[in-house]
Amino acid sequence: MSDFQAYFLLGFEHITDANGYDHILFIMALCSIYTLVEFKKVFILVTAFTIGHSITLALATLNIVSIAPDLIELLIPITILMTAFANFFYKPPVFSFIQKSPKVNYRYPVALGFGLIHGMGFSNYLRALLGGEADIVYPLLGFNLGLEIGQLIIVVVFLSLSFVLVEILRVTKLTWNLIISGIIAGMAISLIFQNEYLPSLFNTAAN
């Protein structure tokens, strides 16, 4: 097996690993207001997230930028919580003959920005795998592609589930969104308070 293939599998396993479910939660939070019939919107949204985390994954792995891993591990569940919380106030766009030009969807730049944070998290894992390896181009490409394939599978599975519940079982989109976003928000809060960086942050602020 080549280095590219090995790191592809590592990237795929990392994004789909149930033990490291923070990235999965974020993808679910991004997608919870949509169903499978709105895949085009989801594709644009996930692409924005992909661009963001690909940028910082490359920059951090190449040691061009560096942020404390503990801080990143705190920021990731915060991005999950903020995304889930925003879902509670989401209102589907209403077509109007008067307003012909649609409003800019704020979720796209937000997904891009939060992707930058998640990319730092991916890079911490990848750098630990690379160690002192000299040639990191192919490992970086393989790992990133593995992430994307795994991410796409998560999106398809999640949207298929929402399609069954909303389009077939006739659960309202609002109910589905509130339930899944509430669960995600609760899990994100738990991750935030489990983070080891949080106590030191409060101690610094108190001093």
What does this structure look like?
This protein has 207 residues and is an all-alpha fold. It has one domain (3-89, 106-196). The chain is built from eight helices and no strands. Helix 4 packs antiparallel against helix 7. The protein is globular. The mean pLDDT is 87. InterPro entries: Put_HupE_UreJ.
* Uncertain runs: none
Biggest β-sheet strands, sense, barrel: none
**Residues in helix, %:** over 70%
Q: Number of DSSP helices? A: 8
Shape: globular
**Beginning-to-end CA distance, first to last residue:** 53 Å
Strand content: under 5%
Cα gyration radius (Å): 18 Å
- How would you spell out the order of helices and strands? HHHHHHHH
Please give the domain count.
1
Quantity of strands, as a count: 0
Mean pLDDT: 87
**Secondary structure category:** mainly alpha
How would you briefly describe this protein structure?
This protein is mainly α and 207 residues long.
Itemize the secondary structure elements and their pairings.
Elements: H1 3-16, H2 22-31, H3 39-61, H4 69-87, H5 107-130, H6 137-168, H7 173-194, H8 197-206
Notable features of this structure?
8 helices, mainly alpha, 207 residues
